[in-house]
Amino acid sequence: MSTAGRAAAADDGELERLRAELRDLRARARVRPLISQAQGIPQERYVLPDGESAFALMQRASQRYNVRLHTLAGVLVTAPRPEGPDALWFPQRVRGPERRRIGPGPAAAAPS
């Protein structure tokens, strides 16, 4: 392969990488406004100090319940607000201590 051929192949690779990056950036730009809008809801509701705390809360909930962050944000924005400041968002939910996993789960345990 000639030097010009190698340069053209390298340019094609770079062009494809840049196109993929552009697609990713456009997808993020479409999703980001919804997530930013949704951040304000838990921040106000739970009196969180800043948007980063609200985002961290949404991210943990997203991972814990295996729900895409964009889907969670959409539900937060469209769910009706509870009546009054003391009303619960999920009145039938039984609240208990959050369970924490320590160590490997049952699938990773060594057989006895």
Summarize the structure.
The chain is mainly alpha-helical and 112 residues long. It has 3 helices and no strands. The chain is rod-shaped.
Question: What labels would you give this structure?
Answer:
mainly alpha, 3 helices
Describe this structure as you would to a colleague.
- It is a single chain.
- This protein is mainly alpha-helical.
- The chain is 60% helix and 0% strand.
- It has helices at residues 3-45, 51-64, 69-78.
- Helix 1 (3-45) runs parallel beside helix 3 (69-78).
- It is rod-shaped and about 75 Å long.
- It starts with a helix and ends in a 34-residue tail after the last helix.
- The model has no long low-confidence stretch (mean pLDDT 76).
Please write the string of helix (H) and strand (E) elements.
HHH
Calculate the mean pLDDT score and round it. 76
SSE class: mainly alpha
Shape: rod-shaped
Uncertain runs:
none
Q: Which percent range fits the helix content?
A: 55-70%
Count of individual beta strands: 0
**Rg, please?**
23 Å
Number of helical segments with 4 or more residues: 3
